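ingest -> validate -> predict -> emit
validate: passed (alphabet ok, no gaps, 606 aa)
predict: started
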Amino acid sequence: MDIRNIAIIAHVDHGKTTLVDQLLKQSGSVRENQQMAERAMDSNDQERERGITILAKCTSVEWNGVRINTVDTPGHADFGGEVERILSMVDGVVLLVDAAESVMPQTKFVLSKALKLGLKPIVVINKIDRHDAQPRETLESIFDLFLSLEANDDQLDFHVLYASGRNGWAVDELEDERKDLTPLFRRIVEDVPAPRPQQLAGEEHPFKMLVTTLEADNFLGRILTGRIESGVITTNRNIKVLSRTGEVIEKARVTKLLAFRGLARVPVERAEAGDLVAIAGLETATVADTLCDLTVEEAIPAHPIDPPTLAMTLAVNDSPLAGREGDKVQSRVIRDRLMREAEGNVALKVHETGEGAFEVAGRGELQLGVLIESMRREGFELSISRPRVVFKTEDGERLEPIEEVTVDVDDAYTGVVIEKISGRKGEMVDMRPTGAGKTRVVFHAPARGLIGYHGEFLTDTRGTGVMNRMFLEYAPHKGPIGGRVNGVLISTEDGEAVAYGLWYLEERGKLFVTPGTKVYQGMIIGQHAKDNDLDVNPTKAKQLTNIRTTSKDEAVRLTPIVPMTLEQAMAYIQDDELVEVTPLNIRLRKRELLPHLRKRARQAAE
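emit:
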């Protein structure tokens, strides 16, 4: 069968997964009476909750006798490693851009990767049915982006479609009849070349395949997905695995061969060069390894992945409440889980630091937060440190990661945003009105200055601002940056927080706990209104006596609190504090649990 391999790339929330839903429906891959969830490709629990794509996934549709293998890729910069791997599997990309938001940081990132590989994008300007859509201005900004990324003449001669992925139509010109996605299907078949490896199909060519994704299955074991570069593969055939350097890692038999057909992976007996397949039966092969015939000696070169820029320490939970909620608490179990994650996620690096602690490095706070949230749901208990940036040293000079920050805010809040980011050593490089009373400001800011800023940004813009970040480059160290201004309220007692005790503490600052919350000595229960830490007793109950006082009828009314999310807690803590993560709770505590009590004991002894 004639094959086309494409990836759909875009900034987060520009409509990739919704468009794939419509491609599946209109190609007949999903029956009209078949139940299909909205954003069907976002099958992971966290993907559906957060509304973003985290893992790249393959699907396949047939249109007029052509099989179109489609890869839905993540749109968030933290998961850029997924995009970098996937682009080596495809022969063309569909670049999706929101007609209202226009070009965004991740649009620039994914397009630059596609252009470097020599791929010619098909540009789809999506959501043109929005009331604030600006399709013509968006097209101009896309063309400017192609020029700034030094696209060649062939890539600059891209075709443009206007679409509404949610409503399931695409048109070549804005005036055309808005009916279905036939123009997009036709453009994919005409513009995207057939896989080059298809010329190497047949038994006379040796089998070769580069592994691009890895996942585990309870029944099939390790499942390795990639594109067959040459030859033919059949089930029950013996193959070997070569590392990037050409060393033989293992020899094994293909127990299962799976092809992508619609939303399902179906077993097949045979697959040829050019097709995307998943292979089971191997024990140690991983991402970037080459699966091949026993006669092949040379591995397929793998494209390098951008290095991680943010790291944090994960350790065994050693708080007084450890082991009460989770069943995976030993360092050995945590180590196995992290190593398994690093094996399949090439953008993540893990190494042991000793004493049950592990340093995990990734692309951003969201990527690390998703990993910890997954472990938490699996029953792990962890204590995690504040994220810190990964520095580099070149020619004796210390370098730090710089991010490009794009901010869309109402005109009234532009001043406070510029002031705050400038105070974090950010430099403004562009500022322009985007219409409807909004302004777009672009900064180049050090990544360490942005840790913990997002919550403050939402407060400053009354929840109306949108901030997007993307790694730009390593640059000379920018000097010291101020951290959190406020101190914290630290519990001096073990037990349960009492409404009466918390009521008297409200005037001291903002509370993080509610009545009935289990607390322990050294646990952070709130934010102090001043810049120093304060020892408090949240378990103090009202003394019950028969003496009447003027305060006997005082009603205890506490201000409702919004519990911190995992990412907020990670960004809030300082270097001497930790986040305790369990399946049921997220707590903050001091790294040294009892320094204030030791100090008191020493003073009493003196």
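The domain at 392-476 is CATH 3.30.70.240 (Alpha-Beta Plaits).
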